[in-house]
Amino acid sequence: MWEAHPVTHEHPGEAAQGLLTPVDVRTLAEHLGVRPTKALGQNFVIDGGTIRRIVRAAGVAAEDHVLEIGPGLGSLTLGLLATGADVVAVEIDERLATALPGTVARVAPEVAPRLAVVHADAMDLTGVLDRVGHPTRLVANLPYNVAVPVLLHVLQVLPSVTSALVMVQAEVADRLVAPPGSRTYGVPSAKAAWYADARRAGSVGRSVFWPVPNVDSALVRLDRRQPPTTTATREATFAVVDAAFAQRRKTLRAALAGWAGSADRAERVLRAAGIDPTLRGERLDITAFAAIAEAAAAEAGSEA
Ligand code: SAM
Fold first, then answer.
1. What is the CATH number of the domain that holds 252?
2. In a domain, 104, yes or no
3. Considering the domain boundaries, does residue 219 fall inside one?
4. How far is residue 55's CA from residue 4's CA, in Å, rounded to a whole number?
5. For ligand 1, which residues put their CB under 6 angstroms from it?
6. In 10 A of CB 130, how many CB atoms?
C-alpha cells in the first residue's frame, strides 16, 4: 500500500500548504492504477498556483458549502478545504471516489472531517440530492466533454448554489459568456443566462495539467440571478432556444417552423411576442426566447 504522503523537494511550499505537488499527482495515479482517460475528461491539475487562483476567483469562504464536481485525485479539493469550507465532491470514477478521503486524510488530516465524497454521475444528481445537501457554491475543473450539461444540470437541480466558478475548455468559456449578437453566442450562452450572469475569470495554460490537454482552458464565473419574468416554463423556453439554434443561419420564421408546426404559425407567434420574424436566433436574449414560448402557449390556449 502507498502509505505516506510524498513530500517532494521540488515544491516544498505546496506540500506544506496541504496541496498536491506534480509528483504527488503522478504517484497517486500510479498507486491507484489510474490511467487518465479522455472519455472521462481526466486532466489533473498539478500546479498549486492554479489551484489558489481558482479558489480565489470562486470567492470561497469558511462559511461556504462547496460542491465540487470531478475531484479526481484531489488537487482542487484540498485547495477548497484549506479555506475552511465544507466540500461535497461528486466523482464518477469509483477508484478516485474511494481513494479521495484517504488522500485528504494523509495530506491534510485537519481538514478531512469537512469532506464528503459521493460516487455518482454529475449528469444526473437527482438520486443523490440528499447526500449533496444544499451547497452554496459550485467550484470545479469540469470534465470537458460534459461541461455544459453538467453545469446547467447543477444550476437546475441545486437552487442553493448562488455562484459557480468552473474551469472549462477556452472555446466553451467563450460560448458560455457570449452576449446576443456575437459569433460565439448559442445554446450554452442562452441557457446559462436563464440562471446566471456569466463572465470570464481568466485563462489557463495547458502545462498546469497532467496529462497535458490539446486545448486551452479558461475560468468562468457565474452569479445566479432571477430567471426572466415570464409565465413560460424553463423547459418550453429551452425548446425554443434549441429550435432556433438548430438552424442558426436561418431566420427565426424558418428555424422555428418545425417547432411551431409551420412557418406561418412561427411568424404569428413571433409577431405576438413582438419579435421580427426575419431576425436570426443569435440576436435574441433569453428574455426574448421566453417571450416566444409564452406567446406560443397563449396562442395554443386561445385555440383550445
Ligand atoms: N478536479 C480534478 C483536478 O482539477 O485535478 C480533476 C479534474 S478532471 C478535468 C475531471 C474529473 O471529473 C475526473 O476526475 C473525472 O473522473 C470526473 N468526471 C468525469 N465525468 C464525470 C461525471 N459525469 N460525473 C462526475 N465526475 C465526472
1. 1.10.8.100
2. yes
3. yes
4. 26
5. 40-45, 69-72, 75-76, 90-93, 96, 121-123, 141, 143, 146
6. 6
pLDDT value at residue 182: 96
How does pLDDT run across 26-66, given as a tens digit for each residue? 999 999 999 999 999 999 999 999 999 999 999 999 999 99
Q: Give dist(CA 176, CA 200) in Å, integer.
A: 9
124 C-alpha to center of ligand 1: Å? 14
Domain assignment present for residue 178? The answer is yes
Do residues 241 and 190 lie in contact, with contact meaning Cβ atoms separated by under 8 Å? yes
User: Ligand 1 centroid to 93 CA: how many Å?
Assistant: 8
Å from CA of 302 to ligand 1 middle: 48
Q: Would residue 37 be called left, alpha or beta, if left means φ above 0 and alpha means ψ between -120 and 50 degrees?
A: beta
What's the mean pLDDT in 190-194? 98
Query: In degrees, to the nearest 5, what angle opens at C-alpha 225 toward C-alphas 221 and 227?
Result: 125
* CA 48/CA 195 separation, integer angstroms: 31
Residues 192 and 149 in one domain: yes
Phi–psi pair at 221, nearest 5 degrees: -105, 130
CA-closest residue to ligand 1 atom 18? 70
Q: Which of 191, 224, 257 is the last residue of a domain?
A: 224
CATH at 70: 3.40.50.150
Q: Are 293 and 236 in contact (CB under 8 A)?
A: yes
Distance 249 CA to ligand 1 centre (A): 35
pLDDT digits (tens, 9 = 90+) for 240-290: 999 999 998 999 999 999 999 999 999 999 999 999 999 999 999 999 999
Domain residues for the domain of 254 are 234-303
Please say which residue of 196, 224, 252 terminates a domain: 224
Residue 71 lies in a domain: yes
pLDDT tens profile 118-144: 999 999 999 999 999 999 999 999 999
